[in-house]
Design brief:
- The protein has seven helices and 14 strands.
- Strands 1-2-14-13-12-11-8-10-9 form a nine-stranded mixed beta sheet.
- About 40% of the residues are buried.
- It is about 20% helix and about 20% strand.
- The protein is of the alpha/beta class and about 350 residues long.
- Helix 3 links the parallel strand 3 and strand 4.
Length: about 350
């Protein structure tokens, strides 16, 4: 395709995108025009090298790495309300994860029950499956799901219990366009003191602070449906598309980016591997196809609000390379800023400011 024709098509898409002007959505949220959703790094505030690639990065993509560098990114991500991430213990899946026989993903697609609070984005992930699932017949093994933006883990989910999960947990929960709940004031009642800070334990499976499920979730279900819920212990999540059955570039880029993200998170004491349940820190998960693999690598970052609780921001980047990881950690994960928005920002939301990209 000639550059002239490509430029003409991209200009047409820009005219048709719903983000060409601000739109009012539900709950007072607004569709943010390009350049207004997240702050861009500023050399006057963030240092002269804030937008420079990492000079110490030794991780490289394959020599023949090639992606779409021309098509407009921002504003073309389809809006979603809840992101459901299913633990499978794998880093690659069948082409459509809903075709995984006997899986929770298949049940979500085929059970006939849809969330009442908006579109559900479904992802399989490399989160480890419970060791107890080997004691159950195939197709009835319990697994774990992670719900965003509520930052909630639900355990003991089976394909058969998916309709109940959707109606009792997902539908009543917060969405990407739900105003953030007000944080509870610190306790001044001596009979109910704040929980003590205990020494960090590396892999006990228990957060260092006793955390309560978000207020947006309903009361626990009866014992006949033994779901267990707990908050995600991490302050932020980095999700990397790793599904090579959809595109080989995703399978190549995900482990390279994880290695480089880990290199920059470890010195800060923020890296958390798949079994590390210490509170705080940053979890890194591989997930299934999210769309736009021609813009690989896709990186989705969920950031908790400063006071904890639910996700305040989701920042969806594309065209990410290993040399971008230092800036993404320093500015995007830790501060909610974007280093290269014109080239990399696909979309996301900011619940603190009531803005979305769709």
């Amino acid at each position: 395709m000639s550059s002239t024709l490509s430029s003409f098509i991209n200009r047409g898409k820009a005219l048709l995108t719903p983000n060409s002007s601000s739109q009012n959505l539900s709950n007072g949220f607004t569709s943010a025009p390009e350049g207004t959703l997240f702050p861009k790094v500023d050399s006057a505030v963030d240092g002269e090298d804030c937008d420079h690639d990492c000079e110490s990065c030794e991780v490289k993509y394959p020599a023949k790495w090639s992606i779409d560098e021309d098509e407009k990114l921002y504003g073309f991500v389809k809006g979603w309300a809840t992101h459901m991430i299913v633990a499978t213990g794998k880093t690659d899946w069948v082409r459509d994860v809903a075709d995984e026989k006997g899986s929770v993903m298949e049940a979500v697609e085929k059970c006939g029950v849809k969330p009442a609070n908006g579109r559900l984005m479904l992802s399989a992930s490399n989160m480890p499956v419970p060791s107890s699932n080997v004691d159950h017949p195939k197709g009835a093994e319990p697994t774990t799901v992670l719900l965003l933006p509520s930052f909630t883990i639900v355990e003991n989910v089976t394909p058969q219990s998916v309709p109940t999960l959707i109606t009792q947990y997902i539908s009543p929960s917060s969405t990407n366009t739900t105003p953030l709940p007000q944080p509870a004031p610190p306790s001044s009642d001596p009979t109910h003191p704040a929980p003590p800070i205990t020494p960090e334990s590396t892999r006990t499976g228990t957060p260092t602070l006793p955390l309560a499920p978000p207020s947006s979730l309903p009361p626990p279900l009866p014992p006949l449906i033994p779901f267990r819920t707990r908050p995600v212990p991490h302050k932020a999540l980095i999700l990397l598309c790793s599904q090579k059955t959809r595109d080989a570039r995703c399978g190549q880029s995900a482990p390279l980016l994880r290695k480089e993200f880990e290199r920059h998170l470890r010195p800060l004491g923020l890296y958390r591997d798949l079994l590390d349940e210490r509170s705080g820190g940053v979890g890194i998960y591989f997930i299934s196809h999210v769309g736009g693999h021609k813009f690989a690598a896709n990186v989705i970052i969920y950031r908790r609000r400063e006071s904890g609780g639910e996700a305040g921001q989701c920042i969806w980047l594309a065209r990410v390379r290993p040399e971008d990881c230092e800036g993404i950690v320093k500015f995007t994960v830790l501060q909610g800023k974007v280093v290269k928005p014109e080239r990399q920002l696909r979309g996301g939301f900011d619940r603190e400011r009531g803005l979305v990209s769709w």
